[in-house]
Amino acid sequence: MFPVKSISTTLYTPTTASPSLDISFVFDHRSTQCSLTQGSLRQIVQIPQDCISPVPQLSQAVGFGLQTICPNLAYQETELLHHFFTFALFTFVPRGDIDYHIIQLILPTLQSSEFVLRAVLGISALHLASLYSETNCSRYQNLALEHLYQGTSSFRTTVDRLDPQNIDAIFTFSGMSILFEIALMHPAYKIYLREQSPIDQLLQVFILWRKIVTLRQSFPQSFRQAILPKQVIVQGMTDAHRSKMMESKLAQMQHFGLLSSELDSITQRLHSLNRATTTDSAEVQIYAEAIDLLHLTFSNFIKSPGHWSLALLWPSGMSMSCVEHMRERRPFALLLLGYYCALLHHGTNQWWMREWDRSVLSAISQTLDGQWIKHISWAVQAVQDAVGCHGCVTDRESRDTSG
């Protein structure tokens, strides 16, 4: 997403040594562009009423009990930690065993790991920033960037291998890192970051997720077997937060034709276009596999609207060659990325997934020439129909797609 610094994490299991793995968390030196907001957060932590929904009592839902955690935090950090465990945590609505296991590990790992603590504080600030208008959220944006920078810096300087003492913290931080890197793609953070196309930002998130998947595959079998069934770990959270929003999301998907039959039609259309426009046989196969995986990803979305992590199936499963073609701005690869953003726009509504899909789609539309712009008209129209897509399509695109 941004110029990155990498660490080489040499991974060890009890039986074999894994090769060096380059884990690039997508943070650079943003702290020089960020400043902590001074003063008490007590006066500014006012949650908008329309954002409040009933949540289960934390000790009942997650089983943390009553205990003092991180007693040496500054007052401002304590406010952020309080917000995370009383509000932000319950926006995640975990669905799978891995999601639930991450939530179960957050509390013990943040007490023993500086980088997990900073990730928690940063995500809490990101969530607060998402609740406010532009004039009121900059203080939380600054806080978020500061804590997330500190967290990634701590990870780089303290983690050089995987061992029994840090495996829980690495697992937790890796899961949280993909969330905050996606959240930072929101256009509101553009003013803090170096100039970079939204396309490249998303592709770097893709690469980060692929490395996280590789990292998790290197974990000992005993760790994976220790992940408990979700019903045992968090009781009541899913039922309490499987809100009417999920039902309305499915209705919206139905309204805009995102049912299996329409998805099949889109898939067939992309396959036909691939065969008609791609001359290299190897590339035809690369794109065909990406199209089929796109179909699978959003078939799952249709069955489980709001399950945001399903969106990660596509970037983790597609060929790396396809990602490289997107980097090179090859038209058909960009077309697939545009369809991914349009389908994603209808498939999930979590706060960290909002707005940036439109920015990526707009950048794609501005990159494609007249020969290709007509082929992305469905994706553009799907987003426009949903939200009006203010500024999403340029005047040139409007003329090209109307003809």
From TrEMBL:
<dbReference type="InterPro" id="IPR053157">
    <property type="entry name" value="Sterol_Uptake_Regulator"/>
</dbReference>
<dbReference type="Pfam" id="PF11951">
    <property type="entry name" value="Fungal_trans_2"/>
</dbReference>
<dbReference type="InterPro" id="IPR021858">
    <property type="entry name" value="Fun_TF"/>
</dbReference>
<protein>
    <recommendedName>
        <fullName>Transcription factor domain-containing protein</fullName>
    </recommendedName>
</protein>
<dbReference type="GO" id="GO:0001228">
    <property type="term" value="F:DNA-binding transcription activator activity, RNA polymerase II-specific"/>
</dbReference>
